[in-house]
Design a protein that fits this description.
nine-stranded mixed beta sheet, 312 residues, Spore Coat Polysaccharide Biosynthesis Protein SpsA, Chain A, 2 domains, 40% helix, 9 strands
Length: 312
């Protein structure tokens, strides 16, 4: 029987974490062995790590004294795994009975050995599927995003996210969303896990690209789904969310693109993109959105001028 470890990184998820764990306990596990469910708590202050009792789960709780970010905490949870598969699962998700069995069965099918990573449909309270899969980024896609061309002229500048596809069918994709990220353990180990320079955002994009270089593709499975609230606990800190998203984008470009392309991405992100964001915030007449945008870019500028960034 194949085996699975589930890793959940928690930061102030409130009652969502207990709901997620309850759905894991209720999921069909007859076709595989669930070896561990590892909750890595990133110094939550809301008591969510004290999620109650789930004696039916092989639960392991790791507590960090500070918020180490998603990539590092995920690697921490995956360390020492002996399972065949690792599932990185967000605490703001709820599984359905077949959310685990169907993707594991797919991965085990003859002829699917070239699939290294799999994801499933994400639905909201109304049962509507979110369009979560993405193409792997290119210098052009980052430039188009910074200039807003992917929104103004999507027929000529395809958005990174595959919004034109309804996600009603299964297919190979560039990248599945990290909220449900099923990966072969041997592949994860061969890749050295997530790159911990990505505090949050783009860590799964980076891993998907490195997996593809090794010949391991990503696949979207439409035959099952999970509930995903979306945004998760990051909505609590919107300015920091913007900062980390922009920082990870620049880091990704620096890591995977040439120097010239990475420099263009940096300049556009830092000096061009803030203006349409602020115009939109003013159009919304939202003082909080204006403050969050200014604060996010202020944190980004401070980061880029720091010694730690030059060493990253």
């Amino acid at each position: 029987m194949i085996s699975l470890d589930i890793v959940i990184v928690n930061w102030n998820a409130g009652p969502q974490l207990a709901q997620c764990l309850g759905s894991i306990a209720a999921a069909d596990r007859s076709s595989f062995q669930l070896q561990r469910v590892v909750v890595v708590d990133n110094a939550s202050s809301d008591g969510s790590a004290d999620h109650g009792s789930f004696p039916q789960l092989p639960l392991v709780l790791l507590r960090n004294r500070e918020n180490l970010g998603f990539a590092q905490a995920s690697n921490q949870g995956a360390e020492g795994t002996r399972a065949d598969y690792l599932l990185f699962l967000n605490p703001d998700t709820v599984l359905f009975p077949d959310s685990l069995s169907i993707p594991l069965r797919f991965m085990e099918q003859p002829g699917n050995g070239h699939i290294g990573i799999a994801g499933v449909r994400m639905v909201n309270e109304k049962g509507e599927a979110a369009r979560t899969c993405s193409r792997l980024p290119s210098p052009g896609s980052f430039v188009a995003k910074s200039l807003g061309l992917d929104r103004i002229l999507p027929q000529y500048f395809r958005p990174q996210q595959m919004v034109e596809w309804d996600h009603a069918s299964s297919r190979q994709v560039g990248q599945v969303i990290g909220a449900f990220f099923l990966v072969r353990s041997t592949l994860f180990r061969n890749l050295g896990g997530f790159d911990e320079r990505f505090f949050v955002y783009f860590e799964e994009v980076d891993l998907s690209l490195r997996a593809q270089i090794l010949g391991a593709n990503s696949y979207f499975i439409a035959e099952t789904c999970i509930f995903h609230k979306g945004g998760g606990t990051s909505t609590q800190v919107k300015a920091k969310r913007l900062f980390y998203d922009l920082r990870s984008r620049i880091l990704y470009a620096r890591k995977h693109f040439g120097k010239a392309a990475a420099a263009i991405v940096l300049v556009l992100t830092l000096f061009i993109e803030p203006f349409p964001r602020l115009v939109l915030a003013f159009a919304h007449r939202s003082a909080s959105e204006i403050r969050e945008t200014v604060a996010g870019y202020g944190m980004l500028l401070s980061c880029l001028l720091s010694r730690s960034w030059r060493r990253a």
